[in-house]
Amino acid sequence: MGEETKVRLLDLDRGELKQFVGTLGMPEYRANQIAERLLAGEDIGEITTLSKKDRQTLSEVAVSGIPETVLVRQSKIDETCKYLFKLFDGVLVETVLMKYSYGYSVCVSSQAGCRMGCKFCASSGIPFSRNLTAGEILGQIIAINRSKNIKIGHVVIMGIGEPLDNYDNVIKFLRLATSEEGLNISSRKISLSTCGLVPNIKRLAQENIPVTLSVSLHNPFDYERSEIMPVNKVYPLDELFAACREYVKLTGRRVTFEYALISGVNDTKRHANELAGRLSHLQCHVNIIPVNKVKGTGFERPDRDSIERFSGYLTEKGIPATVRRELGRDISAACGQLRKGVIEDGGEAGTGSES
Ligand code: SF4
Predict the structure, then answer these.
(1) Where are the domains of the chain?
(2) Number of CB atoms found within 10 A of residue 28's CB
């Protein structure tokens, strides 16, 4: 059996894994032993709680599904570390590990490429290849936990891809990541970032997985937002804010609005005023992200005074707002930048680390 047609064990929840080992003639409890070791980042060959014969049987039809690390970039400024992973079919995805006072947080990718076409985003210039499976998203966390010998406690689904455009796999990932039998990460410590796929925000609100919903807003005017985010032509701001209100009502969680501040584009008082008005009756928080200059987009980072003015104006109007502390500026830590750089430099990244 070719590697690509084998079952990838990380894609299976515990019930499915029990069923699968049953088809190989193994008792159900083997599934628990296998899952425990896979979640610790071990490959099938390393699971010594299984007999050699069982490992052999399993290896003939299955692989762990943990992605291969092809590049690691460690920041010299802080503890941010960026990983480039290769999936079973050669597709490259990237993941960023960040260290905060409260512990480790990881930013995972949910798709290889993205179909949403946001103009400010490095990922939008890369053709969409495919959705990631639940196990491929989970595997990014597991691989980093093992490589650093840590336990990541916070997750943001904010890497390459629009998670709500890969709805079923992302929901399965969330169940695997939050379940006691899985990584047991609290849903309150997971943020899912969306550009605003309204119908799936409403579906997510009903899933009983109350993650933090983080909406990439970036502009409070429909006509301007549509220019940088094509999704706005399909789901304009009134519909988006209505879905956010529903999310708050059903989950009890406040929504975070991401606002990438771009010099001369969306950093004026007019924008701050409109934004404050739009958000005045919504339980929310605004995360201001001074944009990193991305080659080819023409967007520039605002100066410190403009950033503080914008943030101060929102706060004065009673809208909680913070300016995001930037981590890993020296290693292209914004979404899609490492992968884009590697692809533009000629495809294969080569194994190893750059520090
Ligand atoms: S910002 Fe997010 S949704 Fe928009 S193109 Fe980039 S990855 Fe896709």
Answers:
(1) 3-63, 68-354
(2) 12
What does pTM read for this prediction? 0.90
Q: CB of 105 within 8 A of CB of 156? A: yes
> Tokens representing 297?
């987009």
pLDDT tens, N- to C-terminus, the chain (355 residues): 777 789 999 999 999 999 999 999 999 999 999 999 999 999 999 999 999 999 999 999 999 999 999 999 998 888 899 999 999 999 999 999 999 899 999 999 999 999 999 887 776 667 899 999 999 999 999 999 999 999 999 999 998 999 999 999 999 999 999 999 999 999 999 999 999 999 999 999 999 999 999 999 999 999 999 998 999 999 999 999 999 999 999 999 999 999 988 888 899 999 999 999 999 989 999 999 888 765 666 778 889 999 999 999 999 999 999 998 665 555 444 444 444 444 444 433 333 333 3
What residues does 102 pair with on adjacent strands?
none
Q: Among 110, 118, 165, which residue has the most ligand 1 atoms within 8 Å of its CB, making it the best to mutate?
A: 118
Residue owning the nearest CA to atom 7 of ligand 1: 161
Domain boundaries 68-354, CATH class: alpha beta
Is the CATH number 1.10.150.530 carried by domain 3-63? Answer: yes
Q: Which two tokens stand for residue 316?
A: 């004065």
- Residue 88: C-alpha distances to residues 7, 65, 135, 307, 347 (Å): 11, 8, 12, 43, 16
Q: Verify whether ligand 1 is closer than 6 Å to residue 161 (CB atom).
A: yes
